Amino acid sequence: MSGSGEPHTKSSAFFILLFAAGLIVGGLITYYIAFQQISELRSETSNLKAQVSKLWGFQNVTYQNITIYQNSTALTELFENVRDSVVLIRGITSQGTVQGSGFVYNYSGTIVVVTNYHVVHETTSMSITFSNGNGYAAAINGTDPYADLAVLLVNAPQEEFKPLEIVSSSTLRVGDPVIAIGNPYGLVGSMTTGVISALGRTIITEEYTGGFAIANIIQTSAPINPGNSGGPLLNYYGKVVGITTAIVEDAQGLGFAVPSNTILKEINYLITEGSYDRHSYLGLNGTDMNYELAQEMGVNVTYGWRVVDYIDPSPAHNAGVLKDDIIIAINGTRIKNIDDLASYLEEKTLPEENIILTVIRQDQTLNKLVELGYRPYPFQ
Question: Which pTM does this prediction carry?
Answer without folding.
Answer: 0.78
